[in-house]
Specification:
This protein is of the alpha/beta class. The chain is built from 17 helices and eleven strands. The protein has a six-stranded mixed β-sheet with strand order 1-6-5-2-3-4, with helices on both faces. It has a five-stranded mixed β-sheet with strand order 7-11-10-8-9, with no helix packed on it. Strand 10 (389-394) and strand 11 form a beta hairpin. The longest helix is centred in the middle third of the chain and has 17 residues, at 169-185. The radius of gyration is 25 Å and the shape is globular.
Length: 405
C-alpha cells in the first residue's frame, strides 16, 4: 500500500534542488499507486573513491526515502564507467581505473551505503554487466544518437574547449554510457547531485531513442564541508565520514559554521518537517545559542550511524577533552622501550604518525600545539621525558599514551 500522492511528493520535494519535470514524476507516482507497482528509482555510484561521507549520504538518503514510500531502489555501481572517468566538473581528463579497482571500490561503497539504505529493499548492479557486452558496432550506433553540439552544451566541456584543454573522445562516451544504465534497468526516476544534471538529462534523451518512457530526474544539492566553503571532500579534510568513529563524528559535526546548521539538519538527518521548522525558528531567535543546536545535530548523526549510547559517550568524551581539558579514557598506546633512535619528541611524533614529517613535527611544537602531561613543549629539540608513562597531546584532538623507559 503506497502513501497518497501529496504525502509522497511532500517527502520527495524535501531538500531537492530540482525535479525535472515535476508533473511527470507526479503522473508516474499516480500510476504506481493505481497499478500497485513500485517505481524503479536509479542511483548511479562512481566507485573512484571508496570512502563515503555525509556529502554522499545526501542523495543516498533521498533514495532511502523512495524506499520508505514503497518504491524499488536500484544502486548501480559504475565499475565499467569508472574505467572512463566521469568528467563532471573536471578541468582535466581523469585517469581511468582498472576494472579490478572499480569492483573493489564498489564493494566498499555497498558496505557503507547500507548504513543509509534498507539493505533488503534494493538491487545492486554493476554496469559492466551490460556495457561490457556491447560491441563496437553497438557503441557506434549509440554515439550516432547524440551530437557533439549537444555535448558541448555541457559547461565543463565548453570551458575546457575554450581554454584549449584537451577533451578525450572517451569522455563524450561517459554520459552516453550512464544513459545506457537507465535503458538497461528501465528507470522511472534517476537521482543525482546537481553536478550530474547534464548526465541525467542525456539519460532521458537516450531512453526516448530506445523507445522507453523517459525517466524523471531529481537532483540534490552538493553538501558544503565543515569549512563552510568547499564541497565536502576527504582530500580537503572538511568531511564527516560514514565510517568515522563516534568521537570523530561528534567533534567534526561541531565544526560546521552556524549558517549551515539548517542545511545539515535538512539534508543529513531524518528529523520531521515539523522539527525542521522549529530548528529554523530557533536559529532566528537570538536567545538560542547555535552551539546547542549543533550539539543536538552531532548527537543525532552519531545515533544514526552508531547508536544513542555511543552518541552519549562521544558527547561526554568531547566535554572531558575540550571543556574540562582532560585526556580521554581511550587512547592509542605507543611504547618507546625497544625502539632504537626515538630519543626526541620530534622523532616520537613522526614514528607514531602524529606528524607526517620531522619538519611538520617541529612546526607543531613551535606553534604551541604539543604538550606532555598538560605542559606545553616549546623546544623543538626536546628529548623524551624519563618517565615510565606519559600522555602526548598534539593539536586539540590527538592523544597518545606513551610507555617510556
Amino acid at each position: 500500500m503506497f502513501p497518497k500522492l501529496n504525502e509522497q511528493m511532500d517527502l520527495i520535494r524535501r531538500g531537492a534542488a530540482e525535479i525535472i519535470p515535476e508533473d511527470d514524476l507526479a503522473r508516474k507516482i499516480e500510476r504506481s499507486i493505481k497499478s500497485k507497482k513500485p517505481l524503479r528509482v536509479k542511483l548511479g555510484c562512481d566507485p573512484s573513491r571508496p570512502d563515503l561521507h555525509l556529502g554522499h549520504s545526501v542523495v543516498l538518503r533521498k533514495l532511502r526515502q523512495f524506499q520508505d514510500l514503497g518504491h524499488q531502489a536500484i544502486l548501480i555501481i559504475g565499475d565499467f564507467t569508472g574505467m572512463i572517468g566521469d568528467p563532471s566538473g573536471k578541468s582535466k581528463t581523469r585517469p581511468p581505473l582498472s576494472l579490478e579497482e572499480t569492483r573493489r571500490n564498489g564493494q566498499t561503497y555497498f558496505e557503507q551505503a547500507t548504513k543509509v539504505l534498507a539493505a533488503q529493499k534494493f538491487k545492486m548492479l554493476y554496469n559492466s554487466e551490460w556495457l561490457g557486452k556491447m560491441s563496437f558496432a553497438d557503441v557506434i550506433l549509440l554515439a550516432g544518437r547524440y551530437t557533439v553540439a549537444r555535448m558541448l552544451e555541457r559547461d565543463d566541456f565548453t570551458e575546457r574547449h575554450k581554454a584549449g584543454e584537451p577533451i578525450g573522445i572517451h569522455e563524450f562516451l561517459y554520459p552516453l554510457a550512464q544513459a545506457m544504465d537507465s535503458v538497461a534497468v528501465e528507470a522511472d526516476v534517476e537521482l543525482g547531485g546537481t553536478d550530474q544534471k547534464f548526465n541525467l538529462l542525456v539519460g532521458r534523451d537516450i531512453q526516448r531513442e530506445y523507445g522507453q518512457e523517459p525517466q524523471a530526474i531529481l537532483t540534490m544539492p552538493i553538501l558544503p564541508g565543515t569549512d563552510g566553503i568547499e564541497k565536502m571532500s576527504k582530500s580537503l579534510d572538511n568531511y564527516i565520514g560514514l565510517n568515522d568513529t563516534p568521537r570523530d563524528m561528534f567533534g567534526k559535526s561541531l565544526r560546521i559554521p552556524d549558517f549551515l546548521i539548517y542545511t545539515y539538519y535538512e539534508l543529513t538527518t531524518n528529523i520531521s518537517n515539523k522539527d525542521l521548522r522549529e530548528i529554523q525558528k530557533q536559529l532566528a531567535d537570538r536567545k538560542v545559542n547555535p552551539r546547542d543546536l549543533k550539539r543536538r545535530l552531532a548527537r543525532t548523526l552519531v545515533s544514526m550511524y552508531h547508536s544513542e549510547e555511543e552518541a552519549a559517550k562521544a558527547e561526554e568524551e568531547f566535554d572531558k577533552i575540550f571543556v574540562e581539558k582532560s585526556a580521554p579514557d581511550d587512547m592509542d598506546v605507543f611504547s618507546v622501550k625497544e625502539r632504537n633512535g626515538i630519543e626526541t619528541i620530534v622523532s616520537l611524533m613522526t614514528e607514531a604518525k602524529l606528524a607526517s614529517s620531522r619538519g611538520e613535527a617541529r612546526r607543531l611544537i613551535e606553534q604551541g600545539g604539543v604538550s606532555i602531561d598538560g605542559e606545553k613543549v616549546s623546544d623543538p629539540n626536546a628529548r623524551i621525558p624519563d618517565k615510565a608513562e606519559f600522555v602526548l597531546k598534539v593539536g586539540k584532538r590527538r592523544f597518545l599514551k606513551v610507555i617510556g623507559s
